[in-house]
Amino acid sequence: MRRAGPQPRKVLELGLFRGPAIRAPAATLMLLVPRDERPLRGDAGRVDWRLCGRISELLLSEFTRGDFGEATLLPAGPLLPAERILLFGVGDARALQSHGVWRCLRAAVPRLLAIGTRDLSIAFPESIDLARHASSALGGLLEGISAEHGSLRMRAVLPNADQHTAALRHATNEVARAASRSGVLLEVEWIRDPADPGVSAEGPFA
Asked: 148 CB contacts (<8 Å, ≥6 apart)?
C-alpha cells in the first residue's frame, strides 16, 4: 500500500512473507528473546533448533540473558538465509502486552541501525502473538524510524504473515495514518519465498 503525497525522507517497507522465519530473506534475522522463556518457543525456538541449540547454550551460560534492550550479534551460518542474527532482549514475557511490544520494537531500531542493517526479518517468540500485537509491533518500528535524523529506508520482513492477514490489514491501515502524520512512507507487499520459486507471493497487500 502506498500513500500519495510528497516523497518523504523516511520509508518503512514491510515485506509480508508466507514462510517461516528460518526461510525469510533478509540480511539480518532479529530474534526477540524473553528473559523468562526457556526453552525458546515459536519462531525464536525454530531458529535455535536450526542452529543446533547454539542460542540456548548462550542463554544457559548467561552470556546473554534476554534483559530488555540487551543486544548480541552472531553470524547466522549456512543453514539460514540471513547473514547475521541479532538477539534482542525483551525482558519478561508477561510484560509483552499492549505497549510492551511497541516498546521492544521501538528500542530495537537504533540497535539495528548501529550495526548497519536496514534489512531485517523478525523471529517472534511464542509470547508475542502477531494476531494480537501487530499494531503495537508495527507502531514501534514506525516510531523508531520517525525518531531518527535524516533520510532512512528500512525493510522489515514479517514471517507467517498469511496466518494473520486480518490483523495485519487492520494494523497496516492504522499505522499508515500515523506514518502519514510522521512524514514516513509506509509500503506493504507480499514477497516471494526463495525456497519455493514455484509459488508466486509477490505483489501489493490488498
From this structure: 10, 109, 110, 113
Report residue 172's pLDDT band, with 50, 70 and 90 as the boundaries: very high
Strands of 152-158's sheet, edge to edge? Answer: 71-75, 84-91, 28-34, 119-123, 152-158, 10-17, 184-191, 203-204
CATH number, domain of 47, equals 3.40.220.10
Domain range holding 169?
Answer: 10-204
DSSP 8: P
pTM score above 0.70: yes
Contacts of 149 (CB under 8 A, 6+ apart): none
d(CA 121, CA 30): 6
Q: How far apart are the first and last CA of the chain?
A: 7
What is the number of domains present in the chain?
1
